[in-house]
Design a protein that fits this description.
2 domains, binds SN-glycerol-3-phosphate, SBP, 5-stranded mixed sheet
Protein backbone atom coordinates (compact mmCIF):
# COMPACT_ATOMS: atom_id res chain seq x y z
CA UNK A 1 0.00 0.00 0.00
CA UNK A 2 1.11 3.57 -0.35
CA UNK A 3 -0.19 6.95 0.57
CA UNK A 4 -1.65 9.38 -1.85
CA UNK A 5 1.56 11.33 -2.22
CA UNK A 6 3.78 8.37 -2.99
CA UNK A 7 3.77 6.40 -6.21
CA UNK A 8 3.10 2.70 -6.68
CA UNK A 9 4.74 0.18 -8.93
CA UNK A 10 2.40 -1.83 -11.12
CA UNK A 11 2.94 -4.93 -8.90
CA UNK A 12 2.03 -2.90 -5.86
CA UNK A 13 -1.04 -1.62 -7.66
CA UNK A 14 -2.18 -5.13 -8.50
CA UNK A 15 -1.70 -6.12 -4.87
CA UNK A 16 -3.46 -2.98 -3.68
CA UNK A 17 -6.43 -3.69 -5.89
CA UNK A 18 -6.57 -7.22 -4.45
CA UNK A 19 -6.49 -5.78 -0.93
CA UNK A 20 -8.98 -3.05 -1.76
CA UNK A 21 -6.37 -0.35 -1.30
CA UNK A 22 -5.79 2.78 -3.31
CA UNK A 23 -4.20 2.44 -6.72
CA UNK A 24 -2.00 5.32 -7.86
CA UNK A 25 -0.25 6.40 -11.05
CA UNK A 26 3.53 6.66 -11.30
CA UNK A 27 3.14 10.34 -10.50
CA UNK A 28 1.23 9.46 -7.34
CA UNK A 29 -2.28 10.38 -8.54
CA UNK A 30 -5.17 8.42 -7.00
CA UNK A 31 -6.77 6.30 -9.71
CA UNK A 32 -10.52 5.69 -9.78
CA UNK A 33 -12.78 3.87 -12.21
CA UNK A 34 -15.85 5.51 -13.68
CA UNK A 35 -18.32 3.16 -15.32
CA UNK A 36 -20.56 4.72 -17.91
CA UNK A 37 -23.00 3.83 -20.66
CA UNK A 38 -22.27 6.62 -23.13
CA UNK A 39 -21.63 5.61 -26.72
CA UNK A 40 -21.29 7.67 -29.91
CA UNK A 41 -20.97 11.42 -29.46
CA UNK A 42 -21.68 11.05 -25.73
CA UNK A 43 -18.64 8.83 -25.30
CA UNK A 44 -16.37 11.09 -27.36
CA UNK A 45 -17.42 14.13 -25.37
CA UNK A 46 -17.16 12.33 -22.02
CA UNK A 47 -13.67 10.99 -22.80
CA UNK A 48 -12.48 14.47 -23.61
CA UNK A 49 -13.99 15.88 -20.39
CA UNK A 50 -12.26 13.14 -18.38
CA UNK A 51 -8.94 13.87 -20.13
CA UNK A 52 -9.34 17.59 -19.35
CA UNK A 53 -10.04 16.81 -15.69
CA UNK A 54 -7.01 14.53 -15.44
CA UNK A 55 -4.80 17.20 -16.99
CA UNK A 56 -6.28 20.01 -14.87
CA UNK A 57 -4.81 18.80 -11.58
CA UNK A 58 -2.15 16.45 -10.20
CA UNK A 59 -4.00 14.49 -7.51
CA UNK A 60 -6.60 12.35 -9.26
CA UNK A 61 -6.79 10.20 -12.37
CA UNK A 62 -10.23 9.13 -13.57
CA UNK A 63 -10.44 6.12 -15.84
CA UNK A 64 -13.67 6.15 -17.86
CA UNK A 65 -14.86 2.66 -18.81
CA UNK A 66 -17.76 2.03 -21.18
CA UNK A 67 -19.99 -0.79 -19.89
CA UNK A 68 -22.64 -1.11 -22.62
CA UNK A 69 -26.20 0.19 -22.51
CA UNK A 70 -27.79 1.53 -19.33
CA UNK A 71 -29.41 -1.88 -18.80
CA UNK A 72 -26.17 -3.81 -19.40
CA UNK A 73 -24.15 -1.52 -17.18
CA UNK A 74 -26.61 -1.84 -14.29
CA UNK A 75 -26.62 -5.61 -14.65
CA UNK A 76 -22.81 -5.62 -14.38
CA UNK A 77 -22.92 -3.35 -11.37
CA UNK A 78 -25.37 -5.69 -9.68
CA UNK A 79 -22.71 -8.41 -9.72
CA UNK A 80 -19.87 -6.31 -8.25
CA UNK A 81 -21.67 -3.67 -6.18
CA UNK A 82 -20.36 -3.57 -2.62
CA UNK A 83 -17.18 -5.53 -3.51
CA UNK A 84 -13.62 -4.40 -4.21
CA UNK A 85 -14.33 -4.68 -7.93
CA UNK A 86 -16.97 -1.97 -7.84
CA UNK A 87 -15.99 1.27 -9.59
CA UNK A 88 -15.83 4.46 -7.49
CA UNK A 89 -18.45 6.08 -9.74
CA UNK A 90 -21.20 4.47 -11.78
CA UNK A 91 -23.55 6.17 -14.18
CA UNK A 92 -27.05 4.73 -13.75
CA UNK A 93 -30.15 5.63 -15.75
CA UNK A 94 -32.91 7.50 -13.96
CA UNK A 95 -35.18 4.49 -13.53
CA UNK A 96 -32.45 2.70 -11.56
CA UNK A 97 -32.70 5.33 -8.81
CA UNK A 98 -34.83 3.42 -6.31
CA UNK A 99 -32.90 0.21 -6.90
CA UNK A 100 -29.62 2.02 -6.21
CA UNK A 101 -30.92 3.71 -3.07
CA UNK A 102 -31.99 0.35 -1.68
CA UNK A 103 -28.92 -1.56 -2.89
CA UNK A 104 -26.80 -0.79 0.16
CA UNK A 105 -23.70 -0.28 -1.92
CA UNK A 106 -23.84 3.44 -2.48
CA UNK A 107 -22.98 6.50 -0.43
CA UNK A 108 -25.54 9.30 -0.78
CA UNK A 109 -24.05 12.36 -2.45
CA UNK A 110 -25.78 14.48 0.19
CA UNK A 111 -23.00 13.44 2.61
CA UNK A 112 -20.36 15.10 0.43
CA UNK A 113 -22.52 18.13 -0.26
CA UNK A 114 -22.95 18.70 3.47
CA UNK A 115 -19.32 18.04 4.41
CA UNK A 116 -18.02 20.26 1.63
CA UNK A 117 -20.76 22.92 2.05
CA UNK A 118 -21.22 22.59 -1.69
CA UNK A 119 -23.80 25.04 -3.05
CA UNK A 120 -26.26 22.69 -4.70
CA UNK A 121 -28.71 25.52 -5.43
CA UNK A 122 -26.61 26.42 -8.48
CA UNK A 123 -27.94 23.28 -10.21
CA UNK A 124 -31.27 23.04 -12.12
CA UNK A 125 -34.16 22.55 -9.69
CA UNK A 126 -36.22 20.40 -12.05
CA UNK A 127 -33.30 17.99 -12.33
CA UNK A 128 -32.52 17.88 -8.59
CA UNK A 129 -36.20 17.14 -7.93
CA UNK A 130 -35.93 13.78 -9.60
CA UNK A 131 -32.93 12.56 -7.60
CA UNK A 132 -34.00 14.02 -4.25
CA UNK A 133 -35.70 11.48 -2.03
CA UNK A 134 -36.71 12.28 1.56
CA UNK A 135 -34.85 15.59 1.24
CA UNK A 136 -31.58 13.87 0.40
CA UNK A 137 -29.80 14.01 -2.91
CA UNK A 138 -28.62 10.47 -3.54
CA UNK A 139 -26.70 10.80 -6.77
CA UNK A 140 -25.11 13.62 -8.71
CA UNK A 141 -27.14 14.52 -11.77
CA UNK A 142 -25.01 14.43 -14.89
CA UNK A 143 -26.51 13.63 -18.25
CA UNK A 144 -30.06 14.82 -18.07
CA UNK A 145 -32.44 14.65 -20.98
CA UNK A 146 -36.14 14.75 -21.73
CA UNK A 147 -37.99 13.61 -24.82
CA UNK A 148 -38.90 16.05 -27.56
CA UNK A 149 -40.73 15.69 -30.86
CA UNK A 150 -38.61 16.04 -33.99
CA UNK A 151 -40.12 16.74 -37.37
CA UNK A 152 -39.09 17.12 -40.97
CA UNK A 153 -39.76 20.73 -41.97
CA UNK A 154 -39.35 19.98 -45.67
CA UNK A 155 -42.02 17.29 -45.43
CA UNK A 156 -44.27 19.76 -43.61
CA UNK A 157 -43.91 22.24 -46.48
CA UNK A 158 -44.57 19.53 -49.07
CA UNK A 159 -47.74 18.51 -47.20
CA UNK A 160 -48.98 22.09 -46.97
CA UNK A 161 -48.38 22.29 -43.21
CA UNK A 162 -46.75 25.25 -41.45
CA UNK A 163 -43.15 24.17 -40.70
CA UNK A 164 -42.90 26.79 -37.96
CA UNK A 165 -45.90 25.42 -36.08
CA UNK A 166 -45.58 21.86 -34.87
CA UNK A 167 -48.75 20.01 -33.84
CA UNK A 168 -49.14 20.18 -30.07
CA UNK A 169 -52.05 17.96 -29.07
CA UNK A 170 -52.77 14.31 -29.83
CA UNK A 171 -55.54 15.23 -32.27
CA UNK A 172 -53.26 17.73 -34.04
CA UNK A 173 -50.53 15.09 -34.39
CA UNK A 174 -53.06 12.57 -35.72
CA UNK A 175 -54.30 15.10 -38.31
CA UNK A 176 -50.78 16.15 -39.34
CA UNK A 177 -49.67 12.51 -39.62
CA UNK A 178 -52.52 11.85 -42.06
CA UNK A 179 -51.44 14.80 -44.23
CA UNK A 180 -47.75 13.86 -44.09
CA UNK A 181 -48.18 10.22 -45.04
CA UNK A 182 -47.07 9.30 -48.53
CA UNK A 183 -46.26 5.94 -50.15
CA UNK A 184 -42.72 6.16 -48.76
CA UNK A 185 -43.22 8.15 -45.59
CA UNK A 186 -45.19 7.48 -42.41
CA UNK A 187 -46.57 10.42 -40.44
CA UNK A 188 -45.50 9.69 -36.87
CA UNK A 189 -43.42 7.20 -34.94
CA UNK A 190 -42.27 6.49 -31.42
CA UNK A 191 -39.52 4.11 -30.35
CA UNK A 192 -40.97 1.03 -28.67
CA UNK A 193 -39.48 2.06 -25.32
CA UNK A 194 -41.27 2.61 -22.02
CA UNK A 195 -39.63 5.98 -21.43
CA UNK A 196 -41.75 7.73 -24.07
CA UNK A 197 -44.95 6.24 -22.72
CA UNK A 198 -44.01 7.35 -19.18
CA UNK A 199 -43.52 10.89 -20.43
CA UNK A 200 -46.79 11.04 -22.36
CA UNK A 201 -48.60 9.95 -19.20
CA UNK A 202 -46.75 12.42 -16.95
CA UNK A 203 -47.27 15.39 -19.24
CA UNK A 204 -51.02 14.95 -18.67
CA UNK A 205 -50.45 14.91 -14.90
CA UNK A 206 -50.91 11.11 -14.76
CA UNK A 207 -49.08 8.95 -12.23
CA UNK A 208 -47.27 5.74 -13.08
CA UNK A 209 -47.78 3.98 -9.75
CA UNK A 210 -49.68 4.54 -6.50
CA UNK A 211 -48.26 5.96 -3.25
CA UNK A 212 -47.83 9.32 -4.95
CA UNK A 213 -45.77 7.80 -7.73
CA UNK A 214 -43.79 5.79 -5.16
CA UNK A 215 -42.52 8.98 -3.54
CA UNK A 216 -44.69 8.84 -0.41
CA UNK A 217 -43.92 5.18 0.29
CA UNK A 218 -43.24 1.93 -1.53
CA UNK A 219 -45.56 1.67 -4.52
CA UNK A 220 -47.73 -1.44 -4.53
CA UNK A 221 -49.63 -0.99 -7.76
CA UNK A 222 -49.28 0.39 -11.25
CA UNK A 223 -51.67 3.22 -12.16
CA UNK A 224 -50.42 3.83 -15.69
CA UNK A 225 -53.37 1.86 -17.10
CA UNK A 226 -55.73 4.62 -15.95
CA UNK A 227 -57.26 7.28 -18.17
CA UNK A 228 -54.00 9.11 -19.02
CA UNK A 229 -52.24 5.91 -20.09
CA UNK A 230 -55.28 4.83 -22.06
CA UNK A 231 -55.32 8.12 -23.97
CA UNK A 232 -51.71 7.50 -25.00
CA UNK A 233 -52.46 3.99 -26.23
CA UNK A 234 -55.55 5.20 -28.07
CA UNK A 235 -53.52 7.97 -29.70
CA UNK A 236 -51.00 5.43 -31.00
CA UNK A 237 -53.71 2.94 -31.92
CA UNK A 238 -55.60 5.51 -33.99
CA UNK A 239 -52.56 6.25 -36.15
CA UNK A 240 -51.55 2.60 -36.34
CA UNK A 241 -54.99 1.64 -37.64
CA UNK A 242 -55.00 4.57 -40.08
CA UNK A 243 -51.67 3.40 -41.50
CA UNK A 244 -50.00 6.71 -40.62
CA UNK A 245 -47.90 5.29 -37.77
CA UNK A 246 -44.48 3.83 -38.52
CA UNK A 247 -43.26 1.04 -36.25
CA UNK A 248 -39.46 0.97 -36.34
CA UNK A 249 -39.02 -1.30 -33.33
CA UNK A 250 -36.93 -1.01 -30.20
CA UNK A 251 -33.58 0.21 -31.51
CA UNK A 252 -32.69 3.92 -31.32
CA UNK A 253 -30.44 3.74 -34.39
CA UNK A 254 -33.26 2.28 -36.50
CA UNK A 255 -35.80 4.98 -35.74
CA UNK A 256 -33.21 7.72 -36.17
CA UNK A 257 -32.18 6.25 -39.52
CA UNK A 258 -35.84 6.06 -40.57
CA UNK A 259 -36.32 9.76 -39.81
CA UNK A 260 -33.11 10.83 -41.48
CA UNK A 261 -33.87 8.85 -44.61
CA UNK A 262 -37.39 10.28 -44.93
CA UNK A 263 -39.33 7.17 -43.89
CA UNK A 264 -41.17 9.05 -41.16
CA UNK A 265 -41.95 12.76 -40.79
CA UNK A 266 -42.36 13.15 -37.00
CA UNK A 267 -41.02 11.09 -34.10
CA UNK A 268 -40.06 11.37 -30.49
CA UNK A 269 -36.41 11.29 -29.49
CA UNK A 270 -34.29 12.17 -26.48
CA UNK A 271 -33.08 15.76 -26.33
CA UNK A 272 -29.66 14.10 -26.27
CA UNK A 273 -30.22 12.92 -29.83
CA UNK A 274 -31.11 16.33 -31.23
CA UNK A 275 -27.62 17.63 -32.08
CA UNK A 276 -26.63 14.48 -33.97
CA UNK A 277 -29.87 14.42 -35.95
CA UNK A 278 -29.72 18.09 -36.91
CA UNK A 279 -26.10 17.76 -38.02
CA UNK A 280 -26.79 14.72 -40.17
CA UNK A 281 -30.31 15.10 -41.60
CA UNK A 282 -30.41 16.19 -45.26
CA UNK A 283 -33.40 18.43 -44.52
CA UNK A 284 -34.40 21.09 -42.01
CA UNK A 285 -35.28 19.60 -38.62
CA UNK A 286 -37.87 21.10 -36.30
CA UNK A 287 -37.88 20.40 -32.57
CA UNK A 288 -41.08 20.72 -30.54
CA UNK A 289 -42.49 19.87 -27.13
CA UNK A 290 -43.92 16.38 -26.75
CA UNK A 291 -47.63 16.18 -27.61
CA UNK A 292 -50.33 16.02 -24.94
CA UNK A 293 -53.93 14.86 -24.79
CA UNK A 294 -56.70 17.24 -25.87
CA UNK A 295 -58.48 16.26 -22.67
CA UNK A 296 -55.66 17.35 -20.36
CA UNK A 297 -53.42 20.33 -19.74
CA UNK A 298 -49.75 20.21 -20.56
CA UNK A 299 -47.75 19.71 -17.37
CA UNK A 300 -44.27 19.25 -18.75
CA UNK A 301 -41.72 16.47 -18.76
CA UNK A 302 -39.86 14.19 -16.37
CA UNK A 303 -36.08 14.15 -16.18
CA UNK A 304 -34.48 11.29 -18.04
CA UNK A 305 -30.92 10.30 -18.77
CA UNK A 306 -28.68 9.26 -15.91
CA UNK A 307 -26.84 10.35 -12.78
CA UNK A 308 -23.59 9.45 -11.03
CA UNK A 309 -23.49 7.21 -7.98
CA UNK A 310 -20.70 7.01 -5.41
CA UNK A 311 -19.66 3.58 -4.15
CA UNK A 312 -19.71 2.83 -0.46
CA UNK A 313 -16.92 0.87 1.22
CA UNK A 314 -14.12 2.15 -1.00
CA UNK A 315 -11.11 4.08 0.36
CA UNK A 316 -11.69 7.63 1.53
CA UNK A 317 -9.07 8.86 -0.97
CA UNK A 318 -11.08 7.28 -3.79
CA UNK A 319 -14.31 8.87 -2.63
CA UNK A 320 -12.52 12.19 -2.42
CA UNK A 321 -11.28 11.75 -6.00
CA UNK A 322 -14.79 10.82 -7.16
CA UNK A 323 -16.33 13.82 -5.42
CA UNK A 324 -13.78 16.25 -6.90
CA UNK A 325 -14.53 14.84 -10.36
CA UNK A 326 -18.28 15.16 -9.84
CA UNK A 327 -17.89 18.80 -8.81
CA UNK A 328 -15.72 19.44 -11.84
CA UNK A 329 -18.47 18.06 -14.07
CA UNK A 330 -20.99 20.57 -12.71
CA UNK A 331 -18.94 23.66 -13.64
CA UNK A 332 -20.54 25.97 -16.23
CA UNK A 333 -17.62 25.53 -18.67
CA UNK A 334 -17.84 21.73 -18.63
CA UNK A 335 -21.62 21.79 -18.79
CA UNK A 336 -21.58 24.20 -21.74
CA UNK A 337 -19.28 21.85 -23.64
CA UNK A 338 -21.37 18.79 -22.69
CA UNK A 339 -24.66 20.48 -23.67
CA UNK A 340 -23.39 21.63 -27.04
CA UNK A 341 -21.62 18.43 -27.98
CA UNK A 342 -24.40 16.08 -26.94
CA UNK A 343 -27.71 17.89 -26.51
CA UNK A 344 -27.96 16.83 -22.86
CA UNK A 345 -29.03 19.65 -20.57
CA UNK A 346 -26.59 21.71 -18.61
CA UNK A 347 -27.28 20.61 -15.03
CA UNK A 348 -25.81 23.95 -14.06
CA UNK A 349 -27.95 26.51 -15.93
CA UNK A 350 -25.21 29.16 -15.67
CA UNK A 351 -23.74 27.26 -18.60
CA UNK A 352 -26.49 28.73 -20.77
CA UNK A 353 -25.01 32.19 -20.17
CA UNK A 354 -21.64 31.15 -21.56
CA UNK A 355 -20.85 32.88 -24.86
CA UNK A 356 -20.31 29.55 -26.66
CA UNK A 357 -23.84 28.43 -25.77
CA UNK A 358 -25.47 31.71 -26.79
CA UNK A 359 -23.61 31.56 -30.04
CA UNK A 360 -24.56 27.93 -30.70
CA UNK A 361 -28.22 28.54 -29.83
CA UNK A 362 -28.20 31.35 -32.40
CA UNK A 363 -27.13 28.82 -35.02
CA UNK A 364 -29.15 25.88 -33.69
CA UNK A 365 -32.26 27.34 -32.01
CA UNK A 366 -33.77 23.85 -31.77
CA UNK A 367 -31.47 23.14 -28.81
CA UNK A 368 -33.09 25.92 -26.84
CA UNK A 369 -36.53 24.35 -27.34
CA UNK A 370 -35.39 21.34 -25.30
CA UNK A 371 -34.32 23.62 -22.45
CA UNK A 372 -37.52 25.71 -22.64
CA UNK A 373 -39.64 22.58 -22.34
CA UNK A 374 -37.76 21.51 -19.21
CA UNK A 375 -37.79 24.94 -17.60
CA UNK A 376 -41.50 25.45 -18.26
CA UNK A 377 -42.33 22.15 -16.53
CA UNK A 378 -44.53 22.54 -13.47
CA UNK A 379 -42.97 20.72 -10.51
CA UNK A 380 -45.49 18.09 -9.38
CA UNK A 381 -45.62 14.46 -8.32
CA UNK A 382 -46.30 13.51 -11.93
CA UNK A 383 -43.37 15.44 -13.41
CA UNK A 384 -41.04 14.46 -10.56
CA UNK A 385 -41.21 10.95 -12.00
CA UNK A 386 -42.03 7.63 -10.38
CA UNK A 387 -39.82 5.68 -7.99
CA UNK A 388 -40.07 1.90 -8.23
CA UNK A 389 -37.32 -0.61 -7.58
CA UNK A 390 -38.56 -2.75 -10.49
CA UNK A 391 -38.80 0.07 -13.01
CA UNK A 392 -36.58 -1.60 -15.64
CA UNK A 393 -38.84 -4.71 -15.49
CA UNK A 394 -41.93 -2.54 -15.76
CA UNK A 395 -40.51 -0.88 -18.84
CA UNK A 396 -40.22 -4.31 -20.41
CA UNK A 397 -43.90 -4.88 -19.68
CA UNK A 398 -44.77 -1.65 -21.45
CA UNK A 399 -42.64 -2.63 -24.44
CA UNK A 400 -44.64 -5.86 -24.72
CA UNK A 401 -47.88 -3.90 -24.38
CA UNK A 402 -46.89 -1.56 -27.21
CA UNK A 403 -45.95 -4.52 -29.40
CA UNK A 404 -49.29 -6.17 -28.63
CA UNK A 405 -51.11 -2.93 -29.40
CA UNK A 406 -49.45 -2.68 -32.81
CA UNK A 407 -50.47 -6.30 -33.45
CA UNK A 408 -54.10 -5.42 -32.83
CA UNK A 409 -54.74 -5.95 -29.10
CA UNK A 410 -57.13 -3.39 -27.63
CA UNK A 411 -55.47 -0.42 -25.87
CA UNK A 412 -57.04 -1.22 -22.49
CA UNK A 413 -56.20 -4.91 -22.60
CA UNK A 414 -52.59 -4.30 -23.63
CA UNK A 415 -52.17 -1.75 -20.84
CA UNK A 416 -53.87 -3.90 -18.22
CA UNK A 417 -51.53 -6.77 -18.98
CA UNK A 418 -48.51 -4.48 -18.52
CA UNK A 419 -49.95 -3.16 -15.26
CA UNK A 420 -50.55 -6.71 -13.98
CA UNK A 421 -47.00 -7.72 -14.91
CA UNK A 422 -45.67 -4.67 -13.11
CA UNK A 423 -47.78 -5.43 -10.04
CA UNK A 424 -46.39 -8.96 -9.88
CA UNK A 425 -42.81 -7.67 -10.11
CA UNK A 426 -43.50 -5.08 -7.40
CA UNK A 427 -45.04 -7.72 -5.14
CA UNK A 428 -42.05 -10.02 -5.45
CA UNK A 429 -39.61 -7.15 -4.86
CA UNK A 430 -41.52 -5.88 -1.80
CA UNK A 431 -41.65 -9.43 -0.33
CA UNK A 432 -37.90 -9.95 -0.65
CA UNK A 433 -37.01 -6.59 0.91
O1 LIG B 1 -31.04 8.22 -23.89
P1 LIG B 1 -31.04 9.15 -22.72
O2 LIG B 1 -29.70 9.22 -22.03
O3 LIG B 1 -31.57 10.49 -23.04
O4 LIG B 1 -32.00 8.51 -21.63
C1 LIG B 1 -33.31 8.15 -21.94
C2 LIG B 1 -33.98 7.50 -20.74
O5 LIG B 1 -34.22 8.43 -19.76
C3 LIG B 1 -33.18 6.37 -20.17
O6 LIG B 1 -33.86 5.78 -19.11
Amino acid sequence: ACTNSESNTSEQNEENKENNEVVTTEEGKTVISFWHAMSGVGQTSLDSIVADFNASQDKYEVQAEFQGTYEESLTKLRSVGGTKDAPAITQVFEVGTKYMIESGFVEPIQKFIDEDKYDISQLEGNILNYYTVDDELYSMPFNSSTPVMLYNKDAFKAAGLDPEKAPATFSEVIAAAAKLKTDDMKGFSMLTYGWFFEQLVATQGGLYVNEENGRAGDATEATFNGEEGLRVFEFLDTMNKAGTFGNFGTNWDDIRAAFQSGKVAMYMDSSAGVTGIINNAPFEVGVAYIPYSDEAERKGVVIGGASLWMSKGIAEAEQKAAWEFMKYLTTPEVQAKWHLETGYFAINPSAYDEAVVKDAWGKMPQLKVTVDQLQSTEPSIATQGALISVFPESRQQVVTALENLYQGMSPQEALDQAAEGTNRAIEIANKTK
